[in-house]
Design brief:
five-stranded mixed sheet; D-Maltodextrin-Binding Protein, domain 2; globular; single chain; 16 helices; alpha/beta
């Protein structure tokens, strides 16, 4: 009897000790990793324009995963619709034309805010007729993405140099297929990206007459802004910072010449084959298309866009133009740079 009780006592001690050890192990074990956060990014045009290669590289090189976020890339027929989808909550953030975003906030107090940007536009006004001049576009069909879209807004800026506005033309909505239409002879006039030109010339077997370069008529300008809503800039700040960190790291990857083949492969959704993508990368690298440092939303450039949109009527006369402080939120970029490992914040 005594032996049985002694053994029972010893078993109880062993059980209690085991429970204590187990409890200690639970307390000492690291907290479980949080679930990967999910975001959706709206991309401009179908097929998407070349600026989006940064996002495709971040996806293919698993940089979003590296920073603990899953990003779904969604294509829209224009940057305008990508911005509207952001407001509607269909996507969490988008790459959209800066003049368009300026107009949306100024005219309708759209709940958008810029968190990152691409300074240097590459818009050209081109014609397949070598004898045409800027003023000859009056009354003519001209290829744009959509009326009121990025190419349409650029058209307004481009032909101000010859005293015209987009309303003086017949705008033909082509998403990002303007170059294809010009190469096939469907259109004589179009608003183009610089990398459209060699592709048109190769397929059409004739030169494109570049009539106006945006950088010749607007020395200070701005191209695209990564936008989200003001609400999501607060509620999803951490996830957005992680996604932006991945895109910033993708930029460094893209500018490294040894990665050119991988970048060309990632660019496939833009409709460029490998050789075309490599040629495009050369042109865009030379103009620092993707910012190497900084937020990419310089105050003087955004203010110039605001003033330009007031002059050309993009901002309605009775509207209150957006201020730079309302337009740009640098905090997400600053948090992204802490993840990446430092950098300038202006």
């Amino acid at each position: 009897m005594r032996m049985t009780r002694r053994m029972s006592f010893r078993s109880s001690i062993t059980t209690l000790a085991g429970a204590a050890v187990a409890a200690a192990l639970v307390l000492a074990s690291p907290a479980p990793l949080r679930a990967e956060e999910t975001l959706s990014l709206g991309l401009p045009a179908i097929p998407p324009v070349f600026v989006t290669v940064q996002a495709f590289v971040a996806q293919q090189q698993k940089l979003f995963e590296k920073y603990g976020v899953k990003v779904t890339l969604r294509q829209f027929d224009s940057g305008a619709n990508a911005a509207r989808a952001t407001i509607a909550g269909d996507v969490d953030f988008a790459i959209s034309p800066t003049p368009l975003v300026v107009n949306m906030i100024s005219n309708a107090n759209a709940e958008l805010v810029g968190i990152y940007g691409y300074v240097n536009p590459d818009w050209l006004l081109g014609s397949m007729d070598p004898n045409k001049k800027c003023e000859d576009i009056k009354g003519q069909p001209v290829g744009v993405d959509s009326e009121g879209g990025a190419r349409s807004i650029a058209l307004n800026q481009l032909i101000r140099s010859c005293g015209l506005t987009a309303k003086d033309t017949q705008q033909v909505a082509m998403s990002s297929n303007v170059g294809t239409a010009m190469a096939s002879g469907q259109l004589n006039w179009g608003v183009l990206h610089i990398d459209d030109v060699p592709i048109i010339e190769r397929h059409a077997k004739k030169k494109v007459n570049v009539i106006v370069d945006i950088n010749k008529v607007a020395a200070i300008s701005h191209y695209m802004t990564v936008v989200t809503t003001r609400e999501k800039a607060e509620k999803k700040r951490d996830a957005l910072a992680r996604a932006l960190a991945a895109m910033i790291e993708a930029t460094a990857f893209m500018y490294d010449p040894k990665n050119l083949d991988a970048v060309a492969k990632a660019a496939a959704p833009t409709g460029r084959d490998a050789d075309e993508a490599k040629a495009s990368m050369k042109m865009y690298s030379e103009m620092e298309f993707w910012p190497r440092q900084g937020l990419g939303l310089p105050e003087k450039n955004i203010n110039e866009i605001i003033e330009t949109q007031k002059r050309v009527g993009g901002i309605r006369p009775n509207a209150t133009p957006v201020t730079y402080q309302r337009y740009a939120d640098p905090k997400i970029y600053q948090e992204a740079m802490k993840l990446v490992g430092g950098g300038k914040t202006n």
